[in-house]
Amino acid sequence: MLLETEPATATRSYEASSVGIVERQYAQFDTPLFLRSGAVLAPFTLAYETYGRLNADHSNAILICHALSGDAHVAGYSTGAPDNKPGWWDSAVGPGKIFDTDRFFVICSNVIGGCQGSTGPSSLAPDGQPYALRFPMVTIADMVQAQRHLIDHLGIDRLLAVGGGSMGGMQALEWAVEMPDRVGHVLFLASTPRSSAQHIAFNEAGRQAIYADPNWNGGNYYGGPAPANGLAVARMMAHITYMSETSLEHKFGRRLQTHPVLPYTLAEPEFAVESYLSYQGEKFVRRFDANSYLYITKAIDYFDIGADYGSLRAALARTTSDFLVVTFSSDWLYPAAHSADLVRTLEALGRNVEYRHIDAPFGHDSFLVEVDHMEQAVGSYLRHV
Amino acid sequence: MLLETEPATATRSYEASSVGIVERQYAQFDTPLFLRSGAVLAPFTLAYETYGRLNADHSNAILICHALSGDAHVAGYSTGAPDNKPGWWDSAVGPGKIFDTDRFFVICSNVIGGCQGSTGPSSLAPDGQPYALRFPMVTIADMVQAQRHLIDHLGIDRLLAVGGGSMGGMQALEWAVEMPDRVGHVLFLASTPRSSAQHIAFNEAGRQAIYADPNWNGGNYYGGPAPANGLAVARMMAHITYMSETSLEHKFGRRLQTHPVLPYTLAEPEFAVESYLSYQGEKFVRRFDANSYLYITKAIDYFDIGADYGSLRAALARTTSDFLVVTFSSDWLYPAAHSADLVRTLEALGRNVEYRHIDAPFGHDSFLVEVDHMEQAVGSYLRHV
User: Is B364 a catalytic residue?
Assistant: First the structure.
């Protein structure tokens, strides 16, 4: 395999616009991480990848923050991703792409609580056993404080930009509020300043699906069978919320999976959309830890940037960065109205805000799949920073 | 208990607007029911209740069709409902109410495939064992054909109206298309002429939650523990789709359930909306059979009134009844656009159609909870039939 024999510097061997082979790196910290819950996590590890080169004055760094099911592997082909698949935002990160790695030094780390190399419930605790539910609850603020250790470690005082979609946008906003002097620009994409009751409800239904799987066993399943059925159900349900009625209708409609006419049976998927959901569930359980799913959805639920400061306005008054806010017309998980609140408040505070509302049919996932629109919105914004 | 000691004729003992105590009745049919799948169901039983009196020329009968989780107990206090709770649409059915039982003879039967007295997967098959998954798949058309036997049995040639919300509206539409000479008016409320890919997807995620429960055991759980956890997860998820983002936000927002500040734990519900969902799940599993949930959601998925006739227009060309179509602005499960298609096609065919789009925040459940709006829409319509 090319991936295993070529050195990491053979960046352009795949295609001109790919970052090529990327090394998964691990930063280990003995300094304790003081969590919002009052608990302390120590030591902890962050898995991360970088793309492009940090310039001489360390002023071209962009931190990309991943969403619920993401990881540090944003682009190219990673030594830490055994499936040899391109990163989750390969369309956006690379030479000449939206996040142009000929210009920017792009960083992405797996969140704490995750399961892709950073310390999380599946990691070994200091006693040599997996944390499981002994892992402390984490928040978006905690994820960001862990990232701050990494940015310090990389010798970067100030990030040119921090950005991400969905939960990634929450982290970017948290950076700008908590550490305003370290963030130049926030890219807040298909996200929300505050998880709504509906979003908490969907996350809770997914968690209950995991709890209901007997293999979950109170979180103590490492070394035995994982609660794959429960996690798959959680993913199936969540996946529906990432799409839109229109995109599901366009992609599947009422098309049957196998038979020319309805077989009328419970024994197999009858409609194509059923088969697609099963596939999404199965694919997810191969790469994701159920306990991490519990912890990260909780962190999303906890997110309310105004709560720690008394109000959204009071929180945002701390920021000094510029903002790009992007919403999508068909995103019903994080409706545009949530971001519009953010934009109005930032504008009232005199911040520089560029707001792009994109008419796109792909629901919440639009930020990942609407490459042309994202190029026009995010790419053009970044060309002028 | 009043319910057990008072005779069924003491109608007004509760309150003037209640139908009082109602007797659950059972109609047993030996005639085979030929199902869309090609299978035959025989014998079969329909549980039903009636309210008001059938007039001399049998011209004042209204059939109400229930939704996914409903039953025959629409109004008053039923001998067949051991919890002594008023029927699921008590607000709408009674003396002087929307379905005025001083004027109309109102009928409601539990659908076949159900679990509230009509023949379904939890019923005993002719061999004396529960059907479980040996029960044949049923469709909305099959439910309606079973109801037709009941209407014949009651000596009613022509229903003044057939109506219902959600899956109830599907049945009403099916009546008008399949047996046009037997239906005067269709009340099509918060429903759709065709289940969308998104709706099939949500139903399938719920079914997968049931399949994932080891107590489900391929459907063979009667006599043992029921797959309550799986069914509760399915219900929790579905319940979110019955409400709206706005109504969830208004009712719960980010309010905590017990503690003044976030406890940061997986061990108990933290947000009020989580506790509410659990309550909905627990309440549901006490009254509903998991296999029935599988069969009825499948019947909903199968529903596409145009499919059997080549097109929506060809199906609707068979109808001769008048129509009242009601949609709700916040119903995202059955968006108004689906009903608008129906209305346009009916109007193009020259049918009398009254279409009311109601601005209401309660999502799909609006048809049950928006009593004042329903009075204005359905009540005023029925006063003129």
Answer: yes
Task: Report whether the peptide linkage leading into residue B180 is cis, meaning its omega lies within 30 degrees of zero.
Answer: no
Q: Are A88 and A70 in contact (CB under 8 A)?
A: yes
Nearest to B205 among A211, A233, A254 (CB): A233
Mean pLDDT of chain B: 94
Round to whole Å and give the CA distance between A120 and A112: 6
Q: Is the dihedral of CA A283, A288, A291, A293 positive or negative?
A: negative
Predicted local confidence at residue A13, as pLDDT: 43
Q: How far apart are CA A62 and CA A160, in angstroms?
A: 6
List residues bridging with A49 in a β-sheet.
Answer: A108
Q: Give the separation between CA A165 and CA A366, rounded to whole angstroms.
A: 10
Residue of A247, A331, A365, A373 with catalytic role: A331
Place of tokens 């929790």: B236
Residue B41 is inside which H or E element, if any? strand B40-41
Mean pLDDT of B112-140: 98
Q: What pTM, to 2 d.p., does this model score?
A: 0.94
| CB contact (8 A) between residue B204 and residue A301 | no
The structure tokens listed for B58 are 């049998």
- Let me know: does A66 contact A108? Beta carbons within 8 Å: yes
CA distances from A279 to A275, A284, A318, B240, B301 (A): 6, 8, 44, 24, 19
What would the two tokens of residue B79 be? Answer: 């001998």
Best residue in B242, B245, B365 for a mutation probing chain A (most A CBs within 10 Å):
B245
Residue A292: active-site member: no
Instruction: Kindly state the tokens that stand for B287.
Output: 């009254």
Residues listed for chain A: 385
CB count within 10 Å of CB A12 equals 12
- pLDDT tens for each residue of A55-104: 999 999 999 999 999 999 999 998 877 678 899 999 999 999 999 999 99
Could you give the maximum distance between any two Cα atoms of chain A, in Å?
A: 66
Residues constituting chain B:
385
Tell me what pLDDT residue B14 has.
54
3-state DSSP assignment of residue B11: helix
Nearest CA to B114 out of B373, B287, B330, B255 is that of B287
**Are B324 and B351 within 8 A, CB to CB?**
no
**Amino acid of residue A203:** N
Residue A36 touches chain B, beta carbons under 8 Å: yes
ipTM of the complex: 0.94
By DSSP bridging, strand B44-51 and strand B25-29 are antiparallel
Give residue for tokens 């002087």. B96
Convert the pLDDT of each residue in A302-344 to its tens digit: 999 999 899 999 999 999 999 999 999 999 999 999 999 999 9
